[in-house]
Amino acid sequence: MPTLDLTFDEVLSTTRAVRKRLDLTRPVEREVLKECLRLAQQAPTGSYAQNWHFVLVTDGEKRQRLAELWRSGADAYLAKRRGDGEGQVGRIMSAVDHLYEHLHEVPVHVIPCVTGRTDGAPGALQAGRWGSIYPAAWSFMLAARSRGLGTVLTTFHLMHEREAAELLGIPYDDVMQAALIPTAYTIGTDFKAGRRAPLETMVHWDSW
Ligand SMILES: Cc1cc2nc3c(=O)[nH]c(=O)nc-3n(C[C@H](O)[C@H](O)[C@H](O)COP(=O)(O)O)c2cc1C
């Protein structure tokens, strides 16, 4: 059952990338995670079967190792951007740095996976496969938000996907990991809508 009294539109507009306000001290009940996953199962997929798997990592040593892989993947990206930052970019970088330091302490790492590798496949096939898992991942994040949990969709660890697969026993040749979603209760539950460019800058009616 949702624990926050939010409307559907409020959930959609306030499900933020939560990094600094993840409560690292409060355990997350398995039952609440299963509720979120049952809702995620209602998302669309591009195949007749729901070709998803969700690996939930709570074991401390495994989270430690995943965090090392994540940091290693993040380093290349962050090297270019650290110190970039004023304004919104600076705020995001400071939040990413915080997660970088604390990822192993986040109580649950959720890894949505999809069956069937598409490495090097044409764009249309890639779109169908990634598009079969990301709606479910986002539904999980929305359901989590409405229950007082915070999440952030991350992809840094995928630079070392094979090592993560070995660590977690995921059959790499058949299954792609799509993300790593750190999940925890939030510190406070009040989140605002994010700043976005005016709609007119990205909407095209009938032609570009
Ligand atoms: C496909 C995708 C990959 C992402 N990868 C990462 C990541 O590896 N690390 C990270 O800290 N955030 C990652 N993010 C989160 C974005 O940085 C986040 O959505 C952005 O900061 C906007 O946050 P907001 O919606 O709360 O404004 C990713 C988001 C998406 C959609």
Mean pLDDT rating = 95
Number of helices: 7
How many β-strand runs? 5
Biggest beta sheet attributes: 5 strands, antiparallel
Shape: globular
**Pairing-aware structural class of the strands and helices?**
alpha+beta
What fraction of residues sit in β-strands? 5-15%
Give every kind of bound small molecule, once each.
flavin mononucleotide
Radius of gyration equals 17 Å
Helix % is 40-55%
* Low-confidence sequence ranges: none
The N- to C-terminal Cα distance equals 43 Å
Order of helices and strands: HHEHHEHHEHEE
Model description:
The structure is a single chain. The termini are far apart. This protein has 208 residues and is α+β, with helices and mostly antiparallel strands. It has helices at 8-14, 30-40, 60-81, 87-102, 123-130, 134-145, 161-168; strands spanning 52-57, 108-115, 149-151, 175-177, 181-185. The protein contains seven helices and five strands; from the N terminus they run ααβααβααβαββ. Strands 1, 2, 3, 4 and 5 form a five-stranded antiparallel beta sheet that branches. The longest helix is centred in the middle third of the chain and has 22 residues, at 60-81. Bound molecules: flavin mononucleotide (FMN). Flavin mononucleotide (FMN) binds next to helix 4.
Keywords:
alpha+beta, globular, single chain, 5 strands, 208 residues, 5-stranded antiparallel β-sheet, binds flavin mononucleotide
